[in-house]
Write a structure and sequence with these properties.
Two copies of one chain form a homodimer.
Chain A lengths: L38 E11 L4 E5 L10 H14 L20 E7 L16 E6 L2 E6 L2 H14 L1 E2 L5 E10 L5 E7 L7 H13 L4 E5 L15 H6 L10 H12 L4 E8 L4 H6 L4 E6 L2 E9 L4 H17 L4 E5 L6 H5 L1 H10 L5 H18 L3 E5 L1 H4 L9 E4 L4 H13 L3 E4 L14 H5 L10 H5 L1 E8 L9 H5 L2 H10 L8 H17 L20
Parallel strand pairs in A: 2-3, 3-5, 8-9, 8-17, 9-10, 10-13, 13-14, 14-15, 15-16, 16-17
Antiparallel strand pairs in A: 1-7, 4-5, 4-7, 6-7, 11-12
Chain lengths: 539, 539
């Protein structure tokens, strides 16, 4: 594998940095951080780390102290990541609080959110200063501290004899976009909880901070609802083995929280609901063939009060189960064929004065749903389709752009931000789509704010999402299809665009990061010919 | 997942089959065999199997008896495959030879090749007759018995309560093509031995019978040679961790043998040899820039006696290490740029009267190499390029066709078989190439004998190969990229073409077979939306 020898990405004054390269050897390589920090200065001054004398410690002045669940568990986790060869007793050496340590990571956090959840306003900025015998990591929140620990862990490297090193380094870092999401689709194929947890681990390594759980769709309804158990009893691929119980969901949310990741569930309607109809009588629109029902069903029936009552109850449960203040309502790809075929729907259209414009009926439905979630104090995300039939969308609704190639989605970015809505970009990051060769480069070269609009409009782009739709993906191929391709989007969403505009410069760094992912047990596929010191052994 | 209810593929007389469907339930599904046997008759008559009272037994009349390494180990292996829920003691129940058994598989083999290797002439035909209390599996060779055991294992199924069943079935089966290969490339990425062994397992499930080991190439030389240890010491990605020792190679060959799989090594020259040059001085052609060496190297230097001496010694070792009577010599993609630049090569061309036709030089080289392997009593396989510069190719050389799309490779099939050479088809089966969607269908619809030529020419197509080149593939993504896509080629190479011409009919059978692969621990990716009863759990 191409080896990456440190480059000086130095924004701050370099005068205080003394560069002395005494001997050139493997151990002197300066390691990179992925995604690239906003400001990083690295020196070739190298410190040896001894796992037996390495500890994480809360600074005296830190508001957060031992007992903080997010950081206590992160210290354990990162100790194992930083020292992958250390097993058993060694792994607990960070517990030896009172012994003198050769290297101490002092962690200083200003706000106590230890028992909370990360949210849209969570600050993720941090500073990391590594010098002889210590690292100082300071951040406003525990979420920022997590990002700093991740960077720290990537700076540690081993020589051919297994010794651990870190170089003198200064980092000042913050994300470019507050919303850096990854969508998994657990309806077209069921993903075992273990596969979701593993994905959350890899997300944390790339500093993603939102897990968009596209939990149900046409093919199956694996969410085990407390209010409507028949939805999964009858709509899941299997009512016992292919479902997410309340315990499973809690486990996913807890795992994500400890990694500073939000969980935004999507219950997509009125389309994409075929599986819902199996467990909920009269929810879907009966399609007609001529004057008689055909036996087929279409989208949620938008003319019945019972549909809205059901949706309100379902969303009430969802709002309780998923703590995040956002919820994704879907609203995409609604086919009008079935609605048009149904005489009752046609009568309703006439009564409402919608004429033959079924987008008005769709808007009517979505408006009702958005009012429900607003009443639950949730911010709604919807797919761009909901804007495209543009009727009364609450201003704080976030639109997710998923259609088209660059010129097309840029126009959509212009239009939606002009209307004052916040947007998420996912169109160029449909990573379920594959092609032969290095297609990570396309994902890398996306410029989310490159569209015609004012500065105010550009600021309405709050981030983007990698989507991994499940038509051809399940736990067998999820990880190599996602990683390291998703890392390209991760850097675009976190790092400064000008500093990370070159695919050629990114390549060796991404190669190296991919090897780190392997070392951490993530089955990330290769970018091109080459090798990692520690190859994936599972088969 | 779409469930497959048995179809009657009945070539033999059906009069003796009594079909009584008393009750329709899950356990009555009739299971399919992949690849489709030449003749299979299945009844809905169902027998319960009890793992505690199930045994494999050599027939009294069988030439092969206990102590036969190939079948003794196969009985163990298939017991575990047939009864995946049985662990511990249960797994040994086939040892209870003298107790009355409720179901006995009598195995009758006519030739004792228990300690030999499968070869190009090995008969793989078998007959399998399943009736009340017994199965009778008869075959000419142990290799045929292995194929029959595989089919038997696929006929067993479980109901929702975990009980095991098999239906009354008659199979008469044989392969359409004797050479059904799969290529792995261990040079562009190193594949741990475990990944190779796992691939051999999956190959056996699909009745592939040749592992084409493209073991070395430009990027690395992982084969640890006894004669020339510097080849891997200096040419491997890492001289200790990224090599195949002699023990590793023996392990692969032994694992393959027990599954009736030949191992054909490829040491590709004169091109694709950059890594060889690191450990073998003066082997490669020095390239020139004007009048001086540029420091770059080209293909093997074809004008030096030392090159041929080296190749002869290397192939002598290869002939000893790899027992198969075939060896692949490569001969593809030789660039003439470096040869042309070298004044000594140009002088040699003049001396030999080759003019400026470098294909003559290439032929000269290949002819020498083919003579070496002929002297070692090995049959040579070479890539089609060697035919394309058509000089004196020994008649028994097998040409492998790898270039072009259907019309193009069909012309090549015509040309090469017209010249009387045997051919292998791999052009349509480069499964390292990927695209979004169900691309297994392309691999399935290949018709290897659909080209213009006589019947005699068609018979010269001895089979084909799935190729998994390593530019973008290593152990992280090998298995889901290969399986179940390679199964499509496997059925094309084994089964009757007319019986297996429909993608629509193949789809549910392949879905079911893919679920069986998952159950056997093969990380085979999904074909499309759906689920398996037992999903892949690793992540």
């Amino acid at each position: 594998m191409a080896r990456f020898f440190g480059k000086w990405y130095c924004i701050t004054d370099l005068r205080f940095w003394l560069l002395v390269i005494i001997l050139f050897n493997d151990a002197e390589q300066v390691n990179a951080v992925w995604p690239m920090p906003q400001r990083i200065s690295q020196s070739t001054q190298q410190y040896t780390l001894n796992p037996q004398a390495f500890l994480f410690q809360y600074s005296n002045g830190s508001v957060v102290q031992p007992g903080c669940s997010v950081l206590d568990t992160a210290f354990k986790r990162y100790f194992a990541i930083i020292f992958p060869d250390v097993t058993g007793e060694g792994r607990n050496s960070y517990h030896i609080w009172f012994e003198p340590a050769a290297f101490t990571v002092f962690v200083d956090v200003k706000k106590d959110e230890c028992d909370g959840y990360p949210d849209e306003n969570s600050a993720e900025n941090y500073k990391l200063s590594i010098s002889a015998g210590q690292a100082v990591l300071s951040s406003e929140t525990v979420w920022g501290a997590l990002r700093g620990l991740e960077s720290l862990s990537q700076l540690v490297y081993q020589d051919d004899y297994g010794a651990y090193f870190i170089n003198k380094t200064e980092i000042e870092d913050f994300p470019r976009f507050p919303f850096r999401g990854l969508l998994l689709d657990t309806s077209r194929h069921y993903l075992p909880v273990q596969a979701i947890l593993k994905t959350l681990d890899a997300m944390a390594y790339s500093k993603f901070n939102v897990f968009h759980w596209h939990i149900v769709d046409d093919p199956s309804f694996p969410y085990q609802s407390r209010t409507f158990p028949d939805l999964s009893n009858k709509g899941a691929f299997h009512p016992l083995t292919h479902i997410y119980t309340q315990t499973d969901v809690r486990r996913v949310i807890a795992h994500a929280r400890l990694r500073g990741i939000r969980v935004v569930p999507e219950f997509d309607s009125p389309g994409h609901t075929q599986s819902w109809g199996k467990g909920q009588h009269d929810l879907l629109t009966p399609c007609y063939k001529g004057d008689v029902p055909s036996g087929m069903y279409g989208p949620v029936n938008p003319i019945l009060d019972s549909s809205y009552k059901f949706m309100a109850q379902l969303y009430k449960e969802v709002a309780l189960v998923f703590p995040d203040s956002y919820v994704h309502l879907g609203g995409d790809e609604v086919s009008f064929t079935c609605w048009k075929s149904n005489p009752n729907v046609r009568a309703f259209m006439a009564k409402m004065g919608f004429g033959s414009d079924y987008t008005k009926l769709e808007s009517f439905y979505m408006e009702n749903i958005m009012n429900m979630t607003a009443a639950l104090n949730k911010t709604s995300i919807v797919w761009q389709d909901v804007f495209d039939y543009h009727e009364r969308i609450p201003q704080d609704t976030v639109l997710e752009i998923w259609k088209g190639t660059p010129p097309k989605y840029r126009e959509e970015l212009s239009r939606i931000t002009k209307a004052g809505h916040r947007v998420l970009l996912s169109a160029p990051w449909y990573l379920n789509h594959i092609s032969y060769g290095q297609d990570w480069q396309n994902a890398y070269l996306v410029a989310p704010r490159n569209f015609s609009g004012t500065e105010a409009q550009k600021k309405l782009v709050i981030g983007g999402e990698v989507c991994m739709w499940g038509e051809y993906v399940d736990a067998t191929n999820l990880t190599p299809r996602l990683w390291p391709r998703a890392c390209a989007a991760a850097e675009r969403l976190w790092s400064d665009e000008e500093q990370t505009s070159s695919v050629a410069q990114a390549y060796p760094r991404l190669q190296e990061f991919r090897c780190k992912l392997l070392r951490r047990g993530i089955q990330a596929e290769p970018l091109f010919v080459g090798h990692c010191k520690h190859e994936y052994q599972g088969a």
